[in-house]
Amino acid sequence: MGAIKHCTSIRDLKTIEAHIFRTGLPQQPFLTTTLTDSPAITLPKHLPYAHSLFSSTQYPNLFTWNKIIRGYSLSDSPITAITLFKDMFLCGILPNTFTLGFVLKACCRLLRFYEGKLVHSMIVKMGLSVGTPVFNGLLKLYVNCGCVGSARKVFDEMRERDRASWSVMISGLVKNGFGYEALELFREMQVQGVDMDEFTLASVVGTCGHLGALDLGKWVHSYIDKEGVKVDVVLGTCLVDMCSKCGSLHDALKVFEGMCERDVMAWSAMIGGCAIHGNAEKALELFDDMKRANVSPNCVTFTSVLCACSHSGLIDEGCRYFDGMQLEYEIVPQLEHYGCMVDLFCRAGLVTHGFKDLGEQISRHILELEPHGGNNYVLVSNVFASLGRWSNVRKIRTLMKGKKVKKEHGWSSIEVNFVMHQFVLGDESHPERDEIYQMLDEMARKLNREGHVVITSDVLHDIDEEEKENALCLHSERLAIAYGLLRLPKESTIRIVKNLRVCIDCHSAIKLISAIYKRDIIVRDRVRFHHFSEEKCSCNDYW
Fold first, then answer.
1. SS3 label, residue 523
2. pLDDT tens for residues 317-351?
3. CA–CA separation, 424 and 499 (whole Å)
4. Distance CA 232, CA 456 (A)
5. Burial class (CB in 10 A: 0-12, 13-18, 19+), 200
6. In terms of DSSP bridges, do strands 494-498 and 529-533 run parallel, antiparallel, or are they unpaired?
7. What are the pLDDT digits (tens) for 409-442?
8. CA 57 to CA 482: how far, in whole Å?
């Protein structure tokens, strides 16, 4: 026994095993367990040998089963861990907390929801007393399989939660697109005084960036500084991305310049931040700095660079970078890169004659290549609408219904007192609806008094002009701005996040609203940032 425990060589261990067989010692579980527990066996490196020892044992005990199941849960064959677990149960050996944790790890790695659900049912039916780590394993499995409802039910029913429980649940909500719910849970985590790790903070910071929650993002940033949390390259990149997406390019640059280590993702995030703010000069300067720092750009980097060229009309530069990514870095252009180039040429007015017919042909081809993308159907519908072919528009919409394709609905959000408020077209669900619509009426009257002429060309519906004008007045960004005028301090900037491209009329109206109410308004749409101030926009009407 002593020789086994002090053995550090797999060769010596095999010699000891051979001696056991030659001397006729019985293959008892304690001997197998001692052999597999030897420092010489580094699982999963020596897993085949450990498995052969396990197979030679007639009556392996729970500890032995756990040892081999754990090894496979960490190996390249986690499915074997699940198979062994089933075999163990058939042999009449009941699992303990460790067994369940190992099996759930294997299920999580393979996204085996059904087997994980069986483990959960076993815990409930058998009344097994399991610890927090097992429930954390269930949480991770459910969120990784996209079953957020099941995960939240487990989380809410947990008697004890550790930092990992909160981290897995919050990051799981973020991963599955439940950003608002993630921030609500984060606030609850704060109230309960739970310490936050770098992983949780990175998830929350990323969500703040996605939703445009600058105030909460700044609070998290100050927490990181105050608590002395180590800002590694991942967390630093998340902070850069958050500040950029929340409209604070200055803060993003400050974080970036303070990072001790910058990898390709950090550089790409900063270049992308400059691009969506329309600062092409800084974006291209950073790209040159990146190359001087011997960091090779990737496809994400070039998407940001080409985006910067597109937003500033830099045609020659865009063509040069597009060629360079292939010739110098051997990066094959993806759909995003071609999209940037098409956008660059279209914005510059280089695609004019026959563009609508070309658009119709391309749109039809897109539907053939990707028939399940909701945005593709919207694109084709808009092309037909721009041509006034309303019968074709109706056919596309009927086709969408038949294929059960979901269209992405437009929304705008605004942060007030650390709470995100989201609006959709003609939204009447907000508890302060009456005051919001009174402010909308006031905005409309003042716009009319200042001579604003409604631009209806972007309203692609087969309705009359009056209906189009009414629809434009109820766009989600106007509802969000109205709420901002009502609830934010008069000296503060109104920051709006919109998931679709801002229309021409809203862009024109917001410029005028910024002058009428003497407010700076920042709108982040799907394409870029628009900084409105004193009847001007940072995009110079080029977007």
1. strand
2. 999 999 999 999 999 988 788 878 877 877 776 65
3. 10
4. 49
5. buried
6. unpaired
7. 789 999 998 889 999 988 899 999 999 999 999 9
8. 74
